[in-house]
Write a structure and sequence with these properties.
Blueprint lengths: L3 E6 L2 E6 L5 H14 L6 H17 L2 E4 L2 E3 L4 E3 L2 E4 L7 H12 L7 E2 L4 E2 L24
Antiparallel strand pairs: 1-2, 3-6, 4-5, 7-8
Helix pairs in contact: 1-2, 2-3
């Protein structure tokens, strides 16, 4: 079990992973930031991103030690997190996580015939997948 939360408040989306010592942020920077930075995400894209980050946080094991240095009048404690070898990410399992978070079916994010990952975030060439945001609220008279 790990602590994580994602919230979408209108046009603002927040994804937070607790106690991962910045691993989720590093994953986002490595895999998504260059393409998504400054873009408006469609709600399904936001929730796919949240699911992918949640899954990455789940499969990234960290070992944390706490070195203690004692002096005559004080004590200093440091947290020293280190990523460790753990289970490899599984694309089918990741698709299940993404589907749970995004509220869709796993087949939306995984093709069982080709055993390939699917995404609504990126196009096949790696560029951003622009999805139109439609205002479906009733018109005011």
């Amino acid at each position: 079990m790990f602590g994580a939360v994602a919230v979408q408040l209108g046009a603002i989306g927040i994804i937070s992973i607790f106690d991962d010592f910045g691993e989720a942020e590093a994953y986002y920077r490595q895999c998504f930031e260059s393409v998504l930075k400054g873009r408006s995400l469609h709600p399904v894209q936001f929730w796919e991103l949240a699911g992918r980050i949640f899954y990455h946080a789940y499969v990234t094991p960290l070992e944390v030690s706490t070195p203690i240095i004692e002096g005559p009048h004080d004590v200093m404690m440091n947290l020293a997190p280190r990523p460790t070898k753990g289970p490899q990410a599984d694309e089918a399992e990741e698709a299940f996580w993404v589907a749970q978070v995004a509220g869709g079916e796993p087949e939306m994010f995984w093709n069982p015939q080709t055993r390939a990952s699917r995404t609504v975030l990126l196009r096949p060439d790696g560029s951003f997948n622009e999805m139109p945001l439609e205002d479906v609220s009733p018109a005011e008279d």
